[in-house]
Specification:
The chain is built from three helices and 34 strands. With about 425 residues, the protein is mainly β.
Length: about 425
């Protein structure tokens, strides 16, 4: 009997501890629809060396109507993700429960935790303005009944109502601009500067997405130029068209921000935005941590036909980016000019790049380039010199379920 008791105590004393999800850390837990969130999981497990890569993580977002991915290596449900860093966009108002599991495949032990996300609609239609090339009618063709209506043929004229201090809408404060599908809004020169918080630019009506275009090739010539702090901005169902062919797109850019203007970009969502016939799709040239891009989400969008004359990328994020997601997009064709990598990112942390299709990068350039700053002290002339080491490191980045096809250059550079 004493021998049997000794054996039982020995077995119990050596029982393996299950992994523990010590934290679920959404970058935010509430906001307006469509709401994009990033979530990083932290776990402990004495049985593994590296909890980020040695354990498996799975999340259900509680969003049964999310649909399936259209691009990438796996066309599965958007309601599920399997990595320690995940991102998701909630398009409908409601309260959602995210259920996340950490699993040690060697011990077959798990831990489960949940987080709640609350998504709300815009308060009322009085904060909305519908804009067409000719004035639309409130309450007709998808324009909300309580909305303000306006006519404009320029993008800047359409979105000026979103500027801080605007009193153009029926409620006195405009939060949302909806552009008429099938219409084209053009501009020239410096592009359009968008400021303020909790704003949205989207579409109403039926047919093709509204087209935003620039007629200038001077300077950066952006269609959308961020000047000043940007917080909680949504661009949804738009077509940014440089309206060029061949290699004469020059410096035209879809979305542009630099140290000279933007002080910070926080929670920027591009959802179903098409960018095409242009030099560079997105160029965020912000090499200071004080102007970080925190919460950049690009989802279900397409980037086609880029022919820059000065080494731009389809997406060039020369910025300190964190807590974001690049999900379910098509990046295609930088062969026509001297564009570089399809997607290039610097100083990136807590970001997921998944379910994308990347095709036709320029010769000897990468489909995806994820970079860091200097691993040790940079040369004094290097603009990133103050950010070497862990502070400016690229870390906790997940690249999964992407499809890379028809490449004339290389593949992935990390």
């Amino acid at each position: 009997m004493r021998f049997l008791l000794f054996i039982l105590l020995l077995v119990c004393g050596n029982a393996m501890a299950a992994p523990s999800l010590t934290a679920l850390s959404p970058n935010r837990t509430s906001g307006l629809a469509p709401l994009a969130i990033s979530l990083t999981m932290t776990a402990t497990d004495a049985a593994v060396t590296d909890t980020f890569s040695d354990l498996e993580y799975r999340c259900l977002f509680g969003d049964e109507s999310a649909g399936n991915w259209a691009y990438g290596a796996k066309l599965g449900s958007k309601n599920f993700s399997r990595s320690p860093v995940v991102a998701h966009t909630y398009e409908t108002a409601g309260t959602y429960t995210i259920t996340c599991t950490v699993w040690n495949p060697a011990t077959n032990l798990t831990d489960i935790k949940t987080a709640t996300i609350t998504v709300t609609d815009y308060a009322n239609d009085l904060t909305t303005v519908c804009v067409g090339n000719s004035a639309p009618t409130a309450g007709a063709n998808g324009c909300p009944s309580g909305a303000t209506v306006a006519a404009s043929s320029t993008f800047s004229g359409a979105v000026d109502m979103l500027r801080t201090g605007s009193t153009t809408c029926n409620s006195g404060v405009c939060s949302r601009v909806l552009l008429q599908r099938g219409d084209t809004f053009t501009g020239a020169g410096a592009g359009t500067m968008i400021m303020g918080s909790g704003k949205m630019i989207g579409a109403f009506g039926t047919g093709a997405k509204p087209i935003l275009s620039t007629t200038s090739t001077a300077g950066q010539s952006p269609i959308v130029d961020f000047d000043g702090a940007v917080s909680d901005l949504r661009l949804v169902d738009l077509n940014l068209d440089g309206n060029v062919s061949g290699s004469n797109s020059g410096a035209r850019v879809g979305l542009y921000a630099s140290n000279n203007g933007a002080t910070a970009i926080t929670n920027l969502l591009l959802l179903r935005v098409d960018v095409q016939n242009i030099g560079c799709g997105i160029d965020f040239h912000m090499d200071q941590m004080s102007v970080a891009v925190a919460g950049l989400f690009i989802q279900d969008s397409t980037f086609n036909n880029f022919s820059a004359t000065s080494g731009n990328c389809v997406i060039g994020l020369r910025a300190y980016t964190l807590n974001g997601g690049i999900l379910g997009n098509l990046f295609n064709d930088t062969i026509g000019g001297v564009s570089e990598h399809l997607v290039r990112m610097h100083m990136t942390q807590n970001t997921v790049i998944a379910h994308n299709t990347l095709s036709n990068s320029a010769s000897n350039k990468e489909m995806l380039s994820v970079r860091m700053t200097c691993s040790q002290a940079c040369p004094p002339e290097n603009s990133y010199a103050q950010y070497y080491g862990d502070t400016g490191a690229t870390k906790f980045v997940v690249v999964s379920d992407n499809e890379m096809i028809q490449n004339v250059g290389s593949g992935i550079q990390i």
